[in-house]
Design brief:
Length: about 90
Amino acid sequence: MIAVKSAKYLSGHKLWVEFNTGEAGEVDLADLVSNYPAAAPLHDTATFAAFQLDDWPTLVWPCGFDVSPETLYELATGKVPVYLRPSVEMAA
């Protein structure tokens, strides 16, 4: 299971995220912030920078918006976690 070990604010809507796999990378969440009404308070970058990691660990903000570790992993690495890949069944 993918877990976020740490996250650090960079600038704008960008974060540096490190995962339990040893992988890390920059994620730009500007599109997510722009596309979801629940994220409207995060247009303000000071509010965006005030994220926390909850117990799952999920990136969360006081306004109720959150981003899952799997989404962050895909954005940072370009890879889909193995357990989220569709299984390929062989036709009989």
